[in-house]
From TrEMBL:
This is UDP-glucose 6-dehydrogenase. GO terms for biological process: polysaccharide biosynthetic process; UDP-glucuronate biosynthetic process. Gene3D superfamilies: Cytochrome c1, transmembrane anchor, C-terminal, NAD(P)-binding Rossmann-like Domain. GO terms for molecular function: NAD binding; UDP-glucose 6-dehydrogenase activity. Keywords: NAD, Oxidoreductase. Belongs to the UDP-glucose/GDP-mannose dehydrogenase family. Substrate binds at residues 152-155, 204, 249-253, 257, 320. It catalyses: UDP-alpha-D-glucose + 2 NAD(+) + H2O = UDP-alpha-D-glucuronate + 2 NADH + 3 H(+).
Length: 431
């Protein structure tokens, strides 16, 4: 069975590598010539631990190849995974433009039965749309099935997550498609959820929205903890021991970012609205997240008087550690608000870089933590990279002009920092 993966971004590249690892012949297709050129050379165009090793291994073994030739790629394949982006439209709904384009191309070029699988995160009803788009584009009739197989991997842990999933969700109305998909994953040991395409599509959004809800819940509780002199980390530890609650996704901080939680929560809210249902809990989840970074900047402004002319170090830019992805990164929101208030910023991140945009021109990008902290009036910790967790704050005391530390990821201990003579402000773990 030959597999084609369309879209070689985070999800597509990982999907391609996982199927190669499971023993299938895989082709990765993208419209971006530069990405395909890099992938052919065994180089990833983004940072993802372990993925480049798999890429090199499977290029060498001939298990995987990359192309921009869509006609040939579609015709040679038996199963086609759609892994293109589904970004937010201005109203928050999912933009299915790339999915539609791919579906039309498949319809035009197919030369026999194809199983088309959407792995991209798509709103409920998209399987029916994709079926219609393929049918409309077909010049000759060929049978096909469209199934939904959402992806649950996390950036930074993509390889482990994709090779050892918690579950594989297959939304399909055809026995042939279900059996084919199950056979592709036959060596993966995990529960299989076999359901309708609409249910599979909703499971994906409901999962991300639930995780985002946990984060906003603990973030709002953290604000209360600050008032009550209680440590939110102790509260999270205490409630997380209840298996009905679980300990994960209860780390308070400057809010969730990334390419998916913000976009998927908005899309789900919009789907509900279009069906005259108000997802009021999720609407609050978004509100809390939108104000979480300013909770910390407000505290900092009170402490510093104003940001104008202050030298401020920003440690961490990526939306979380182990990725260079800065999409919707809370650090960017903090940087923008400090720049608006005329602070002088020095930024350090081990791998993530600022977008090329005139508004960031004045930010000094540093190659070392110490360089960013030099003569700083204050520092914001925005991403919990190991190198940032491991900073020797005793040594940094003389490097900074004033020891004001605003910990957006609750990675330090308030008592230790105060004992070193720092002013320390976290999000709910200040006791
Ligand atoms: N990034 C993540 O961790 C996860 C993402 N998802 C979902 O997976 C989907 C893809 O996400 P990412 O991989 O992050 O996106 P991405 O933006 O990194 O990659 C999408 C790729 O599709 C390519 N593309 C667009 N139109 C094309 C076409 N007509 N033919 C061939 N290639 C085309 C683009 O050039 C790009 O390389 C989204 O729906 C996302 O919500 C799901 C789980 C995890
Ligand atoms: O659909 C997707 O794209 C993916 O979205 C998330 O994965 P990802 O965005 O890679 O990263 P997470 O580890 O979930 O973190 C998201 C954000 O929440 C923040 N976060 C996470 C956990 C926590 O306790 N507190 C917290 O603030 C992180 O710092 C980060 O900004 C989900 O975890 C994946 O299951 C899903 O497949």
């Amino acid at each position: 069975m030959k597999i084609l993966v369309i879209g070689t971004g985070y999800v597509g590249s990982t999907t391609a590598m996982v199927f190669a690892e499971l023993g299938w012949k895989v082709t990765g297709l993208d419209t971006d010539v530069h990405k395909i050129r890099q992938l052919r050379q065994g180089l990833l165009h983004f940072h993802e631990p372990g993925l480049e090793d798999l890429l090199k291994k499977h290029i060498q073994s001939g298990q995987i190849k990359f192309t921009t030739d869509k006609d040939k790629a579609i015709q040679e394949s038996d199963v086609i995974f759609i892994c293109v982006g589904t970004p937010s439209r201005p109203d928050g709904s999912a933009d299915l433009r790339f999915v539609k384009q791919v579906a039309s191309e498949i319809g035009q070029k197919m030369n026999g039965y194809k199983l088309v699988v959407t792995k991209s995160t798509v709103p409920v009803g998209t399987q029916e749309l994709v079926t219609g788009w393929i049918e409309a584009a077909q010049e000759h009739f060929y049978p096909f099935d469209v199934a939904s197989n959402p992806e649950f991997l996390r950036e930074g842990k993509a390889v482990t997550d994709a090779l050892n999933p918690d579950r594989i969700v297959i939304g399909s109305e055809s026995k042939r498609a279900t059996n084919l998909l199950k056979s592709l994953y036959h060596s993966v040991k995990c529960p299989f959820v076999i359901t309708t395409p609409r249910t599979a599509e909703l499971i994906k959004y409901a999962s991300n929205a639930f995780l985002a809800t946990k984060i906003s819940y603990i973030n709002e509780l953290a604000r209360l903890c600050d008032e009550l002199n209680v440590n939110v980390k102790d509260v999270a530890g205490g409630i997380g021991l209840d298996p009905r609650i679980g300990s994960s996704f209860l780390q308070a901080g400057i809010g969730y970012g990334g390419s998916c939680f913000p976009k998927d929560v908005s899309a789900l809210i919009l789907t509900a609205r279009q069906n005259n249902i108000e997802l009021s809990v999720l609407e609050k989840v978004v509100k809390v997240n939108q104000t979480q970074h300013s909770y910390l900047t407000d505290k900092a402004r009170t402490r510093l008087g104003s940001f104008s002319g202050k030298k401020i170090a920003i440690l961490g830019l990526a939306f979380k550690p182990d990725t260079d992805d800065i999409r919707e990164a809370p650090a960017l929101r903090i940087i923008e608000s400090l720049l608006n208030e005329r602070a002088q910023l020095r930024l350090y991140d081990p791998i993530a870089t600022l977008p090329h945009d005139a508004k960031y021109e004045s930010v000094a990008v540093c190659l070392e933590v110490e360089e960013a902290l030099k003569e700083a009036d204050a520092v914001f910790l925005c991403t919990e990279w190991p190198i940032i967790r491991g900073i020797d704050w005793a040594q940094m005391k003389d490097v900074m002009a004033h020891g004001n530390v605003f910990d957006g990821r609750n990675i330090l201990n308030a008592h230790d920092m105060q004992a070193l003579g720092y002013y320390y402000q976290s999000i709910g773990s200040n006791d």
